[in-house]
Amino acid sequence: MMSLRVYRLLLFLYPVGFRRVFGAEMVAVAERHWARQRAGRRRGRGIWFWSFLGRDLIRTVPPAYFASWSDELFSVRRRLGRRFSRGTPTSPPGRQSRPGPGRGEIFGAMLRDVQIALRGLKRNPGFAAAVVAVLGLGIGANTAIFSALNAVLLRPPPFPEPERLVMANLAFTDPGGTAEPRTSPWSYPKFEILQSNLRSVQPLAGFVARRMVLTGSADPARIDVEMVSPSYFTLLGAHASLGRVLLPDENDPSIPNLVAVLGHDIWHTRFGSDPDMLGQTVTLNSHAVTVVGVLRPGFRGLTGKAALWIPMSAASVLEHPRRLTMRFSHWFHAIGRLQQDATLDAARAEARRIGETIDAAHRWPTRTELQSVSLTPFLDARVNPVARASVLVLTAAVVLVLIITCANVAGLLTARATARRREVAIRAALGASRSRLVRLYLTESLILSGIGGLAGLLVGTWGIRFLSAMWPESLGTASRNLQFVDSSALVLDPTVLAFTLITSIATGVAFGLLPAVKASRTDVSWALKHDGHGAGPRQGLWQMLSGRAVLVTGQVAIALVLLIGAALMMKSLARLQRVELGFDPSHLLTFGYEVPRSDPTSDDPASFHAAFADRVRALSGVRGVTFGCLPVSGGCDRTVVTRIVGRAPIPPDAGPVVGTQIVGDGHFDVLGARLLEGREFTSVDRADAPPVMIVNESAARLLFPGEEALGQRLAISLGRFTEPGVNAEIVGVVNDIMYRSPDLGTTVEVYLPFRQEPLPYTNVTVRTDGNPTDLVQAIRKEMRTLSANVPLDDIATMDERVAEATQERRVIFNLLAIFAGTALALAALGVYGVVAHAVNERTRELGLRMALGARGPEVVRFVLLRGLWMTTAGVAIGIAAAVGLTRFMAGFLFGITPTDHSTFMIVAAALLAVAFLAAYLPARRATTIDPLDALRAE
User: Is the pLDDT of residue 308 over 80?
Assistant: First the structure.
């Protein structure tokens, strides 16, 4: 009989009215059914019993609630009765079955509810406007942040079956297993082995992102280019709208094919959508490249920003003559598609076997690491972990703001429902059921949330524009350049619009359900006798506060969590901005350029750089010019020390790792750094002069602990210094300069003069007397005079670059501060509203207290003590929640812990002070009540 007892409990899933009318009959039918199963001695009778009655429960519970909603229990029972028994049950005595509601009746009832709700809101336009404004703010903030979440994490890449795409990585493993395997790009000979043998992943394509100089038909420009193997376009479903894509034989390593496929955007903007573009040549890094096709609109490659595609075979001309034949030149990545009948585990097993073949054929002669092949799903590899963490933190914050918004609006509706008790009582006295009253209130809530959703779309549009202006480029750039999410990706697309619609409906139900249920429980007799005013029967001030106080307590707790998060970010940013950079970033203009290898000026890059520096130095307002890697830019080239004169020989590739900076004359004077010992580089440090270098403090401590670094001689694995017997003398020691993000600290650096190790591409730093950007046009003119084919690239002031180094944290802080401020204002409004409403409802009680001799301070204390308890409870809950939640922000903090005690205490005290002021204002107003007027009003 256990099954029957469980069945009786499950009947509580039905509405009360439905159970009252049909519960006994349903139990009787279940008992007869169970008896038949027992009499038949069927095996598994419990299964048969529940298969019969379980289906009835699933099929009838939703219609029963609908029937309760429509006050049509008997008609629905008539239509569903046959599912309870084989015969058609009769209605209870005295009850006549009524015909079921048609679609017209249901629609008419809904329309009447809407009309009643609109009339009620029209009578209170101020209330409606306040609710819509609060909802618009909460829904709009969620819409804006969801657009970022959608762009970074949810929106699928524009490629066919992206879930079957995999990244194939070359991996190096320590034979001892003491270190994590490290992944590496591919060299072409190793990639050929992988491409020929990995059957479960086909097609397989190589790709690499480059920035190249495009000249002809317009001013020179550096554009984003992808070098790819021909199967790249088939793999990603890219098709040509004009001409063709690359052919398989155009990737022959022995035959450089200088052909190109244009993206639709550059074909439209730079070449005017010329239909005769096929067969014409464009100049890329001073090499003529023939256009063979134009892609369809919308395709921007794996990087998300490519403008032009060329075959990988062109690298032997555009980059290095032996680029495709060097076994240990690892320079591009690989992506493929799993075959339909292949699984990722099977493909990984096959890749491991191929890795052994690659390791045997191309073992690194000076390293003990083993080579292997690893496969990673593309959807995992393309997402930047920093972007994911940033957007998730902001999403959590904005969801908390939406919860506060719902709680605040629920409090407003609860207060309004209290004022409408007489109206509700009259409706109930005239026969309106409780479900009918709840439906009426929910209709009003849904109307408000719908209008609030429209306002949220407007606020969300502004929010997206604001977020786009703040969006840091690095936030959407993953490793391998697989995903580039710029501000243009933040749009109100159908997914975001659907989210806004669902959020509007969900918030309408969330903030409307509690007031609706509470209003439907109105004591009809008391409300009619007291004209709907007063605290209600058996309600003191404490009981009056209880319903809305829970909502306000939650608002305070959530506001405290957001405020603590914003305060932690603010404190972290303040400490980050106080980090010593090692140079003076003011009045510095920075940019880069590259001398194309086929340009007549490229035979001697050092002479070109020196000539350009002389021209810029002669401009009015220029104090100095230098070359070299830019500080706070993320770091530059790194290599190893191979030899220190006077020390024991260093094993191959076992020397200390150092950063290498190739810099100009007077480099440290231009930057505003401090030369601690020795001298700077000058024009005497020519290519035919003895090699020299300067080291920073960290390098001096690492390489020469307890010794004088000045005058020491060493060699590094770079250019001419790899030659036997070539050792550079240390002629200077400089202070540490921050080349990475300030939170990562300084690095070990050695500096080389640009005349002794010239590179075609360099960064330029110009110190000026005034505004650095005023000199941009003059510097461009000097470059055009020197060479018309060399564009200036990535122009920015050093102050802007320093700001960019902390931009991710600044964006998160700014948005958290906005959300926290909004939450604080809503929480304070909630406290004020609860206390003010309580004072208004208890006017007679407060007047009586004052008539009996209570003084003003006593009345204020009486109201405050019963208003601030919810703030104190909210602060306690908020601190406990913040201790657990702020640990997810640890990756964004610098110099403090996620549970910094001083921050917690200061924020809690500030929130208590704001809540005290919000409660004091209505408490102070209570002292102005005239006892006689209060008593006379009752």
Answer: yes
**For a pLDDT cut of 70, what percent of the chain falls above it?**
78
CB 362 within 8 A of CB 371: yes
CA distance 600 to 361: 40
Q: What is the pLDDT of residue 30?
A: 76
CA distance 551 to 874: 10
Strands (E), 826-929: none
Residue-wise pLDDT for 664-686, tens only, equals 999 999 999 999 999 999 999 98
Asked if residue 345 has pLDDT above 50, the reply is yes
Distance (Å) of CA 241 to CA 226, 294, 296, 297, 298: 19, 6, 5, 8, 11
Strand 259-262 relative to strand 370-377, pairing:
unpaired
Q: Of all helices (H) and strands (E), which one includes residue 142?
A: helix 125-149
Q: CA–CA separation, 776 vs 772, rounded Å?
A: 8
d(CA 420, CA 520): 11
Best CA proximity match to 760, nearest among 589, 590, 625, 599:
599
924: CB partners within 8 A, 6+ apart? 860
Report yes or no: 483 and 382 within 8 Å, Cβ to Cβ: yes
692-696 and 728-734 as β-strands: parallel, antiparallel, unpaired? parallel
User: Quick one: tokens of 874?
Assistant: 């909210």
* CA–CA gap between residue 816 and residue 151 (Å, rounded): 20
Distance of CA 747 to the CA centre of its chain: 30
Q: Cα–Cα distance between 54 and 51 in angstroms, integer?
A: 5
Q: Give the model confidence (pLDDT) of 922-932 as tens digits.
A: 887 777 766 66
DSSP 889-922: GGGG--SS-TT-HHHHHHHHHHHHHHHHHHHHHH
pLDDT in tens, 900-911: 999 999 999 999
Under DSSP, the state recorded for 599 is: S
For residue 478, give every residue at least 6 positions away whose Cβ sits within 8 Å of its Cβ, in sequence order, or none.
381, 382, 383, 384, 387
Whether the Cβ atoms of residue 512 and residue 506 lie closer than 8 Å to each other:
no
First to last CA, the chain: 59
pLDDT value of residue 95:
42
